[in-house]
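Why do we care about 3D structure at all? Because function follows from shape, and shape follows, mostly, from sequence. That is the central idea of this module. The next example makes it concrete: a single protein chain, its amino acid sequence, and then its structure expressed as tokens.
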Amino acid sequence: MKNNIRVERAIKNITQADLADLIGVSRQTINTIESNRYVPSTVLALKIARVFEKPVEEIFMLDDKD
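And the structure:
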């Protein structure tokens, strides 16, 4: 699964730490999600989408191998 969290953070001008605080996880969790090393739970994906005020499908996209 791919994501555009880094782009969305830049648009909102927030850091990984800011996003982590907003959704209640560590900065390292945000880093691993952005780096595509970790696929978030449904709840976590929905929380991230809520911060960016976008549907989850605009934040997370299935990869060809998914």
